[in-house]
Amino acid sequence: MRSKNTIPLVGILMGSDSDLPVMEKAATVLQELGVPYEMDISSAHRLPDKTAEYARTARERGLMVIIAGAGMAAHLAGVIASHTTLPVIGVPLKSGALAGVDALYATVQMPSGIPVATVAIDGAANAAYLACEILAVSNPKIAQRLKEKREKIRTQLEEKSKKLKEGLIE
Q: What phi and psi, each to the nearest 5 degrees, are found at residue 169?
């Protein structure tokens, strides 16, 4: 899946189709902010050649950031980071007996020189926001959209707070 009629700036990769419900949250944020993306499935363990090729060719395809979500052993983000110098954001996914803690540890414990930025377990939406912040460094349009989104969130929270104080929310 990819954004329509544009070269994607963000790649969203997941290890399995069972990861899609969480990783779609990243796609939703990118759509809301008008950032073109592509999405695919590629397991670090079951499709290692495809995963390496995806990472190696990402820059020439126009990607600027990669978001990678995987559960359990969660090597996807690290494998991608080992094959590209693009920023990689890991999304540890809640799965297995350890409910995502193993995925969190696997994603944050990268060797020196092969970093993976890591968000919370199932934090795909924040991974997309972080990707947009990275892009916003050199893209004023994305920076403006991020600013507007934050203002909207702030306004909504202030309205809810006001209603709570007025007794309109219990």
A: -125, 130
